[in-house]
Design a protein that fits this description.
Blueprint: E1 3-11, E2 15-22, E3 41-45, H1 53-65, E4 70-73, H2 78-81, H3 91-102, E5 106-110, H4 118-123, H5 150-167, E6 173-177, H6 189-203, H7 206-212, H8 237-264, E7 271-273, E8 275-276, H9 285-289, E9 296-299, H10 308-322, E10 326-331, H11 349-359, E11 362-367, H12 395-412, E12 421-424, H13 427-435, H14 444-459, E13 463-465, E14 476-479, H15 487-498, E15 502-505, H16 528-531, E16 533-540, E17 545-549, E18 552-556, E19 559-565, E20 571-576, E21 587-594, E22 597-602, H17 608-622, E23 635-641, E24 645-652, E25 658-668, E26 674-680, E27 685-691
Parallel strand pairs: 3-4, 3-11, 4-5, 5-6, 6-7, 8-9, 9-10, 10-11, 12-13, 12-14, 14-15, 15-22
Antiparallel strand pairs: 1-2, 16-19, 17-18, 17-20, 20-21, 21-22, 23-24, 24-27, 25-26, 25-27
Helix pairs in contact: 1-3, 5-8, 14-17
The structure holds beta-D-galactopyranose (GAL).
Length: about 700
């Protein structure tokens, strides 16, 4: 029997009167409306199935006291929800949701499909994934399921359907997380057959596939679909890319299998998401995210301390999946348990990190986890309460955040990030470079960050988007390492330049086509005529070589492309100094006005100092202005824009106290009053509101 709760708020935050009404039972009984949750939520992962029900109340009271308004529940609780095949027990979950609701805490329900129960994998062993070495996974950890297996999908759909029918109209359920961190795939013969079918659908005929993959090379030509192997990491580049696209499409259909049944049985206001992992590239996130309502990610620092550039880029990447605000659905309360050294973040750093999340567009920051299970694989992970159920030292910092989120929520409600600069990112390109790095120190994510870092510091906001996204709104679009350039992306970029934008291509761009074949022209392939120049040759470097030009003198480590300027309007921006003879005095970066805009190609991996100058030139040439204005080094500025207001989040990540002078007086939301400047201690945060 479900218990329905009606709550009357008599006086804000002080007195709550609870009226418990015992419902008539059944999934469809009407539920009382819940009060609207605050715009910015603090949350935690809570595992009520791991504790006696008598303990729940104490935990929820402590959460409420810390200003926590969201719990994510259920994502590993399949054996508790379906202890025996076809016998579902969701009553405890309904009681947990109701108990949380009584503390003004909303629930996000995780479908438990990352950890199938032992009875399931024992009875249907084909649902267990098979490793590349042909060994089947065993029970006892998680992610042991086979994402392509029809029986597993049938079982997953049934449990998701049961949950959705029961909770799809529950006013305290905000939304759904499908599964948990999609990652592991299977190499069993049935999956291989599915891959071969997928290839048939994509390529139509073997003749076409053989041509597009140039299988004449090494006698790779196929005369039957079932000859085609799965290859990972080393193999025909067309085959490698096809396998990753199959993996991505299979995650999409795996997700859709649950998503459809949740959508069919839930209120439209309940969102559906899944939790991703920053720069993880095990599948193409643009493929998988297109069916979701909301992007959400698990933000862990691991060893060391927060790097606001690296972490900020991961936020911006996640925000780009749906091009709107996102959630940090998991983050570390101090420390993790899986790094080489599981050091704690410093006092004040967790709070600074939470505000950094919000600045980049997160509407929720949720800590993993509330309390460690007494047994299980993650006993040492950071938590908000200890094994005795009382607060750990970090709890007070979280409670401070709870108060601050409540204070800032009205100003932040309805605000989003807006950027003048976009960085283009594609999984195809990252994979293509990783499979053939040519210099084993070449890391495509670091290449992206080498551009992102100085551009973020100058512009104070950057969007990260796929190369086929609409680009008209950006003054500057930068594509570092856009190695695979599809026809559609090339057209999109050319139109952007023709229309007045400034496109900057970074080293290794425009080399491959959509099948991961070399373009039949030199880099940047279809954009050569627009650029009025091209890459004559690329060189992997043993050691840094000198560069000199418009951006000063510096060094080029790892990678150098010898450019040529064929058009009289193409300007040479920098040149290589003396090195291997081939590169001596040759162009390393060129630019040309084209259409109403400009196109630039940077062929050299630039050292940080030269890249900072290059970023200055890129932004100045494109008319990009900082969101707030110049601030001391190490101070991060983010801005969120509403219809009538604008909120700046300013954080001191430097090692010294800093003073930030504001261009105009602003309301200091956390400190109170109107300020013309703010003093920030190390890890200090100011949240400032201005009208637009
Ligand atoms: C995440 C995972 C959580 C927990 C956490 C520990 O990757 O989703 O369930 O294991 O890591 O850091």
């Amino acid at each position: 029997m479900p218990i329905r709760i009606v709550r009357f708020r008599v006086c804000s935050g002080v007195i709550f009167l609870f009226l418990l009404i015992v419902g008539l039972g059944g999934a469809s009984s009407a539920q009382a409306p819940a009060p609207a949750p605050p715009a910015i939520l603090l949350g935690t992962a809570w595992y009520p199935e791991q504790w006696p029900e008598s303990r729940w109340e104490a935990d929820l009271a402590l959460m409420q006291q810390a200003g926590i308004h969201m719990v994510r529940v259920g994502e590993f609780a399949w054996s508790r929800m379906e202890p025996v095949e076809g016998h579902y027990d969701l009553n405890w979950l309904e009681r947990a949701i109701a108990a949380a609701g009584r503390h003004n805490i909303y629930t996000v329900l995780g479908t438990p499909t990352a950890s199938p129960p032992a009875w399931l994998t024992q009875k249907y062993p084909e649902t267990l994934r098979v490793n590349q070495d042909g060994r089947r996974a065993e029970h006892g950890n998680r992610q042991h399921f086979n994402w392509a297996n029809p029986k597993y999908r049938e079982m997953a759909r049934k449990i998701a359907e049961q949950m959705a029918k029961r909770f799809g109209h529950n006013p305290y359920v905000l939304g759904w997380q499908i599964d948990n961190e999609y990652a592991e795939v299977s190499f069993d013969p049935e999956t291989r057959a599915q891959f071969q079918q997928w290839l048939k659908a994509r390529y139509g005929s073997l003749e076409n596939l053989n041509t597009r993959w140039t299988t004449a090379y090494w006698s790779e030509s196929y005369t039957a679909w079932d000859q085609i192997p799965i290859q990972v990491g080393y193999g025909n580049p067309g085959l490698l890319l096809s396998w990753m696209r199959f993996v991505s499409d299979t995650w999409r259909s795996y997700q859709k299998n649950q998503l459809d049944v949740i959508r069919a049985n839930s209120d439209a206001r309940q969102f559906i998401t899944t939790n991703t992992m920053g720069s993880f590239d095990g599948y193409d996130h643009y493929t998988v995210e297109q069916d979701l309502d909301l992007a959400a990610w698990d933000d862990y620092v691991g060893e060391g301390h927060l790097d606001p550039i690296q972490n900020g880029a991961a936020h911006d990447l996640t925000r780009g999946f749906k091009q709107k605000n996102f959630w940090v659905i998991e983050t570390q309360p101090g420390s993790v348990n899986w790094a080489a050294i599981n050091n704690s973040l410093d006092k004040g750093e967790v709070r600074a990190m939470a505000w950094h999340d919000v600045g980049h567009g997160a509407d929720v920051v949720s800590y993993w986890q509330w309390r460690s299970a007494l047994n299980g694989q993650e006993q040492y992970h950071g938590t908000l309460v200890g094994s005795d159920g009382t607060p750990v030292p970090l709890y007070a910092e979280i409670a401070q955040l709870g108060k601050e989120f409540a204070k800032a929520s009205p100003a932040l409600a309805g605000t989003t990030v807006q950027s003048q600069v976009a960085i283009l990112h594609s999984y195809d390109s990252r994979w293509a470079i990783q499979w053939q790095k040519h210099n084993d120190k070449y890391n495509p994510v670091e290449e992206i960050l080498s551009y992102y870092g100085p551009l973020r510091v100058i512009a104070q906001s950057v969007d990260i988007l796929p190369p086929t996204a609409a680009l008209g709104q950006y003054k500057l679009v930068v594509a570092p390492g856009l190695n695979v350039l599809s026809e559609a992306a090339a057209k999109n970029l050319a139109a952007y330049v023709e229309g007045g934008g400034h496109l900057v291509l970074g080293q290794r761009s425009g080399m491959k086509d959509d099948d991961n074949s070399l373009q039949p022209e030199r880099q940047p392939g279809p954009l050569v005529s627009l650029l009025g120049g091209r890459v004559e040759q690329y060189y992997a470097l043993e050691k840094p070589i000198p560069i000199e030009g418009k951006w000063g003198t510096g060094e080029c480590p790892l990678w150098a492309e010898l450019l040529s300027a064929k058009d009289s309007g193409t300007e040479i921006l920098i040149r290589y100094g003396k090195s291997n003879g081939w590169l001596d005095g040759q162009p390393a970066a060129i630019t040309r006005k084209a259409g109403k805009g400009r196109i630039t190609y940077i062929g050299a991996w630039l050292d940080p100092k030269t890249m900072a100058q290059a970023a200055k030139w890129m932004t100045e040439t494109s008319g990009v202005k900082p969101a707030l204005g110049v601030v001391p080094d190490g101070v991060e500025v983010s801005a969120r824009y509403g219809t009538h207001n604008l909120v700046y989040v300013v954080i001191n990540f430097s090692k010294e106290p800093q003073t930030v002078h504001l261009p105009a007086a602003m309301e200091d939301i956390l400190g109170g009053g109107s300020k013309q400047s703010v003093d920030l201690p190390v890890y200090g945060v100011a949240v400032l509101s201005a009208s637009r």
